[in-house]
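Researcher: Next sequence.
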Amino acid sequence: MGAYTRANAEVCLLGVSPGFKAGERVRSHKVHQVIEAPFEGHSKKPDETRRRIVELLGDVPRIKLFARQRADGWDAWGNEAPEE
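Model: Next structure:
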């Protein structure tokens, strides 16, 4: 809990490999950084997060680290990720 408000931001970090050139790889420049969505559970990212990443970069390999769920088109690594 924050001192005045509930600390409820979920941070999403995008990792890229060396030599990545955003000007050549970004597919859409209309993707916004902030997503406002109802709370769905501890550490759960809204589905909109994955949709925007795909819109931003296209069909590239994707992985969710420290995953608690699986999503189509994404690899999931995490102690709490369900087995495939």
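Model: The chain has two helices and two strands. The longest strand covers residues 63-65.
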